[in-house]
Amino acid sequence: MSYKNILVAVDDSPISYAAVEHALSLAQLTHGNVTLLSVIAVDPFVGVDFYKIAPAVTDYFMQAEAHAKSRLDEIKQSFDRDGINVSTKLYHGVPAAEGIINTADEINADLIIMGSHGHTGVKKFVLGSVAQNVLAESHVPVLIIKH
């Protein structure tokens, strides 16, 4: 199978950057198009009115968005240097796994590449697993990069 539309989900973690390196190598081999995605997840307190209007919260999300855009632009340069057709996308307002799945559908991705922190037990239960949710919901192959 040839992967022509590769979606790469990135965050600030080192494992995310390892996923980027895998995507770069695979895109070079397949001459595929790459979409770099960062999801600013929905806030768990979104239903609490006083929380939504707090200036500190607004500032936090504005800073998170600016940081994500900067990170995507920085990663994009690696693909540009190697002549790979790359675009960036920022998705917000939904849980991370939902943003990844929605974007994969929007761009007609035929592969999703992402890192997994490998949390198990209570940590996985409390934090959830974005990778596990994407694996369960995705209609396209998912390449999970682990430590």
TrEMBL record:
Its main location: cytoplasm. The keyword Cytoplasm applies. Residues 3-146 form the UspA domain. Pfam families: Usp (PF00582). Keywords: Cytoplasm. One of its GO terms (cellular component) is cytoplasm. It is found in: Cytoplasm. Belongs to the universal stress protein A family. This is Universal stress protein. It comes from Acinetobacter qingfengensis. The lineage of its organism: Bacteria, Pseudomonadati, Pseudomonadota, Gammaproteobacteria, Moraxellales.
